[in-house]
Amino acid sequence: METLVSGIAAIFTTVAFFPQAMHIIRYRETRAISLYMYVIFTIGVAFWLVFGFMIWNWPMIIANFITFGLSATILTMKLRYG
């Protein structure tokens, strides 16, 4: 049951992140987002990813792997394009 619940949560939180990420990637417009928020968020997602591996929870691992990739990309773009 825990895997099912975490799977549903992982799907919703990862899918919710996609529209913002795709907009930023497409238009390279990052002025309106906070650098500090994305630094903290990316670090937090990295820790959730590590935790997913620690408890061997595949939905958590997959969702946080995808979200980490997107947030790291956005963070990189924020640093590059300001």
Highlighted features:
single chain, 82 residues, mainly alpha, 3 helices, 87% helix
What topology does this entry show?
Blueprint: H1 2-27, H2 35-55, H3 58-81
Helix pairs in contact: 1-3, 2-3
Cα-atom Rg, whole angstroms?
Answer: 13 Å
Give the helices and strands as they follow along the chain: HHH
Helix content: over 70%
Largest sheet: none
Tell me the quaternary state.
Answer: single chain
- Count of distinct strands: 0
Q: Judging from the principal axes of the Cα atoms, what is the shape?
A: elongated
Average per-residue pLDDT, rounded, comes to 91
Structural account:
The protein is mostly helical and 82 residues long. Helices cover 87% and strands 0% of the residues. The protein is built from 3 helices and no strands. The protein has helices at residues 2-27, 35-55, 58-81. The chain is elongated, with a radius of gyration of 13 Å. It starts with a helix and ends with a helix. 16% of the residues are buried. The mean pLDDT is 91.
Give the gist of this structure:
87% of the residues lie in helices and 0% in strands. The longest helix is centred in the first third of the chain and has 26 residues.
